[in-house]
Design a protein that fits this description.
Blueprint lengths: L7 H8 L3 H16 L4 H14 L1 H10 L42 E5 L6 H13 L3 E6 L3 E4 L5 E4 L1 E2 L10 E4 L3 H8 L2 H12 L3 E5 L3 H6 L17 E4 L4 H12 L15
Parallel strand pairs: 1-2, 1-6, 2-5, 6-7, 7-8
Antiparallel strand pairs: 3-4
Length: 265
């Protein structure tokens, strides 16, 4: 008979998720069902969702433009035993955030001619000590002259490795570098991808201008977000403190406090 109980496990799974994960599930249903061209099929799916979670069904229906919820689909087994477990944290990924270790994470350090090279070297060393792969990303690959007259070797470009491939982003200081990056359309998309995916972002000194140019609300933590935002805007002379804050923020991997539906950017 339990094979005819189609919804108890689905209810347990959904109710065990954090609010962020529940939103992701609802948004996934909305996305997939919006591709269905037959209204009756969309309505039938929502009617099944009502048996698993009224809250989920209501959110999906709203996203599909349904004014009223369809009747819940009749169950194959109208009467089921009372579940022994109503919520199980082990079913939620966010209930198991890990130990904050950064080994294997991949960070982009965004540079351009005129960048403050000493900060880039300092950031690379600190990240390497944490087991992080720190890539120098420029408008192009190859030697990038610094403000001090030496050069950094950019082994990736914004064109061949877009922002969503990285776990976090550092934008180094340097007025000339920032001016060059501000004229490259790839820069804005790179920053926006990191923001949309809730990754940790550090902008130092003049690089803070790029956050504003990309439309990021640098004061997001004081206005729109719930909880930690992972946006760090540092003063030019606070490189060491900024890197420490960045590494600590990276331990959370994603900062869903700034996630919005529809997205801000």
């Amino acid at each position: 008979e339990k094979f005819a109980d189609h919804y108890t496990q689905a209810t347990l799974f959904f109710e065990s998720q954090t609010p962020v994960e529940q939103d992701h599930i609802a948004n996934a249903f909305r996305f997939e069902l919006s591709k269905v061209t037959v209204p009756a099929i969309r309505e039938r799916t929502v009617s099944m969702l009502r048996n698993a979670s009224e809250a989920l069904a209501a959110k999906v229906a709203k996203g599909l433009g349904m004014d009223t919820l369809p009747e819940a689909m009749p169950k194959a087994m109208p009467e089921v035993a009372t579940p022994e477990v109503l919520k199980s944290p082990s079913l939620s990924l966010l209930h198991r955030p890990g130990d904050g270790a950064l080994t294997g994470r991949k960070v982009a350090i965004l540079v351009a001619p005129g960048v403050e090279g000493s900060f880039v070297v300092q950031a690379q060393a600190a990240l390497l000590a944490q087991g992080v792969v720190a890539r120098i990303v420029g408008p192009r690959i190859g030697a990038i002259p610094t403000a001090a007259g030496d050069a950094l070797d950019a082994d990736a470009s914004m064109e061949n490795e877009p922002g969503f491939l990285f776990d976090a982003l550092i934008i180094a200081d340097g007025q000339e570098a920032v001016a060059a990056l501000s004229q490259d359309g790839h820069t804005m998309e790179f920053i926006k991808d990191q923001f949309r995916h809730c990754k940790t972002i550090l902008a130092v000194g003049a690089a803070r201008q790029l956050l504003t140019q990309a439309g990021l609300p640098v004061s997001l933590d004081k206005s729109l977000a719930q909880g930690d935002t992972g946006l760090i805007a540092a003063e030019p002379g606070d490189g060491e403190g900024a890197i420490k804050a960045f590494i600590q923020a990276m331990g959370k991997h994603r900062h869903f406090g700034r996630e919005m539906d529809p997205p801000l950017l």
